[in-house]
Predict the 3D structure of the following.
Amino acid sequence: MVLAAGRGERMRPLTDRIPKPLLPVAGQPLVGHLLRALAAGGMREIVMNCAWRAEALQAALGDGQEWGVSIRYSTEPWPALETGGGIFQALPLLGPEPFLLANGDVWSDLSPGALALPPGMLAHLVLVPNPPHNPAGDFGLAEGRVLPDAERRFTYGGMAVLSPALFAGCRPGRFPLAPLLRAAALEEKVSGVFHDGGWVDVGTPERLYALRARLGEA
């Protein structure tokens, strides 16, 4: 599942008329880089949620064939359902098996095909070094286990493998994903991997321009 429903408030005015995942980067939409990486990792069936300028997102990406994938859309009302609510609404499209979750506004050189949910876990997270905009980090990591509280913390990298069972007891509506992950981590049911390679959370114009420069775009 690709999360692509938000407006991108910190990216305004660039996102007033265009969804953030469609902002151009090195000759294609930002989310196009993610879709190609997913296809290269063997993941061809994609569910993408959308809310802000949903019609523009669907018109631009279509069925996903251009990027080697097949996209089905989970359209949300506006305001969007947040991360947890958006995933919960899309569960019927995702099916009963664990699924990869990826933020549509994150660029990384990590191969998503290498990720898997270990037995007995509800979630498997990609953690990255803390960027300047999140110096305190989100979770600790020790021997492959994600810790909700630790002296040394890393940042959630916007990519994970989740079990639908993580959402047991949830109800339709707006709610974030982070509290579910924290609760599962307290039960020692969240594993993780540390990625120290290329990674950019494209949350501001400055980070967008930096990514363009990194990928060779003038």
User: Anything to note?
Assistant: The mean pLDDT is 95. The chain is about 25% helix and 25% strand. The chain has one domain: 2-214. Residues 82-94 form the longest helix (13 residues).
